[in-house]
Write a structure and sequence with these properties.
It contains five helices and twelve strands. The protein is an alpha/beta fold and about 230 residues long.
Length: about 230
C-alpha cells in the first residue's frame, strides 16, 4: 500500500436476528461490488477497530420488543443493551425511555420503579491489588485496569493467589488456599495474616469479606465482565 494512502477494512456484522442466509447474501453482495475481503464480526466479540470506527455513536441493541425501558452498559466507545433487571445494574449505565422518543439519561435520573430501591446497594469495583513477596515482606501491588468498560474495570483472570478488591461498599480478600498441609500451608497462612492487616487499612471502616477463589459466589463474579 503506498505511503499515506487510506487504509480501509470491510466488516460484516450480524445481530442476534440475522440468519446465516442473510449474512451469506451480504457477503456475496460485498464480493459483487468488489469491496474487498470481508471480516466477519460476531455480536459481543467486536474488535477495537470496529468499535472506534463509530466514534462513540455505536449502540448495540438486543432483539427485544415491548419493554418500556431499556438498560445499556456504556463505555467511551459504544453502548450495549443488557437485561433490564436489578442483577444487571452497574454504575455508569444508561436507561433509554421508549415512551420519551428514545431519550437516554444517566443512571440516577430516571428508570424503572425498582431503581430507587437498589441504587444505594449497587456495588462498583474501585481498585484491585495483588499481594506479593518483596524483600521478605508482603506488599500490595495495585493492578492496572485492562478494560475500556467503565463499569467493569478489571477481569476475573486478574485475581491472584492472594488479592484484595476494594468496592464502594466493602473490601474482599480473595485467596487460593493450598490443599495440602505442611510448611507451604503455614507460609501461606502467614501471608494471609499480613494481607488481612493490609486490607484493614484499606477498608477504613468498611466490612471485610474473605472468599476462596475456587468457590466465588455468583454475585461477586458479577463485578467482572462475563466470560
Amino acid at each position: 500500500m503506498p505511503k499515506g494512502s487510506q487504509k480501509e477494512i470491510l466488516f460484516l456484522w450480524g445481530g442476534a436476528a440475522a440468519s446465516e442466509l442473510l449474512l451469506g447474501e451480504a457477503a456475496l453482495l460485498a464480493q459483487d461490488l468488489h469491496l474487498g475481503v470481508t471480516h466477519n464480526v460476531k455480536p459481543g466479540m467486536e474488535p477495537r477497530a470496529f468499535l472506534k470506527a463509530w466514534k462513540g455513536r455505536l449502540t448495540i441493541e438486543k432483539n427485544t420488543t415491548g419493554d418500556n425501558f431499556k438498560l445499556y452498559s456504556s463505555c467511551e466507545e459504544f453502548s450495549r443493551e443488557v437485561d433490564c433487571r436489578k442483577e444487571s445494574l452497574r454504575h455508569g449505565m444508561k436507561f433509554e425511555y421508549k415512551k420519551e422518543n428514545g431519550r437516554k439519561v444517566e443512571i440516577g435520573k430516571g428508570g424503572p420503579s425498582w431503581f430507587e430501591e437498589v441504587k444505594k446497594s449497587v456495588e462498583k469495583v474501585e481498585k484491585l491489588w495483588s499481594a506479593e513477596n518483596f524483600k521478605d515482606r508482603i506488599v500490595a501491588i495495585e493492578l492496572p485496569s485492562r478494560k475500556i468498560w467503565t463499569n467493569f474495570p478489571y477481569e476475573l483472570a486478574q485475581l491472584t493467589t492472594l488479592s484484595i478488591l476494594l468496592t464502594n461498599l466493602r473490601v474482599y480478600i480473595v485467596s487460593d488456599t493450598p490443599k495440602t498441609e505442611g510448611s507451604h500451608a503455614q507460609d501461606f497462612q502467614k501471608r494471609l495474616d499480613c494481607v488481612r492487616e493490609i486490607a484493614a487499612n484499606i477498608a477504613n471502616g468498611k466490612t471485610i469479606k474473605e472468599l476462596e477463589i475456587s468457590d466465588l459466589p455468583k454475585k461477586f463474579k458479577s463485578l467482572f465482565p462475563p466470560v
